[in-house]
Amino acid sequence: MTAARNAFARTLSLPDLDATRDLAARVAALARPGDAIALSGPLGVGKTEFARAFIRALARRHGAPPPAEVPSPTFTLVQTYDLGAVSVWHFDLYRLERPEDAVELGMDEALAEGVSLIEWPERLGAGLPRDRLDIAFSYAGKGRPEAREAALAAHGDWGARLS
Known about the structure:
This protein has helices spanning about 15-30, 45-60, 105-115, 160, and strands at about 10-15, 35-40, 80, 85-90, 115-120, 135-140, 150-155. The chain is α/β, with parallel strands linked by helices. It has one domain: Rossmann fold (3-Layer(aba) Sandwich). The chain has a seven-stranded mixed beta sheet with strand order 1-7-6-2-5-4-3, sandwiched between helices. α1 (about 15-30) packs across α2. The chain is globular.
């Protein structure tokens, strides 16, 4: 994705897990119902950890108690969290066989009512929401196994919010 096609595109260095959690909190501060946040990257790169921190930060923002647990939805495919004024739908589409199977998971309802965190968004193909924030995580290397990079690309009104 290039800056020419998106209102906002930037790569951030995440030297440790705390930096990933900080990014999640900053994105949660901007999130609102109807948002889709697409989290991509290889296994173990931090997508679910970002989602955990995002959900907890959004709960604090809305004065809701943070969930005691935020498990990876790898096997359930979706976990939902009622945070009072907003709900979060956390999708893990790694095991999704066909893009149209996302309808059975409540994807349409989630996109209409809540904030959707979508791991493995490429599994949706053309069904990926046009208005979304893409966050592509990668290993940064450089002698630090915990270091990551996050490439952010905004589509729709996310560009104005991030600028």
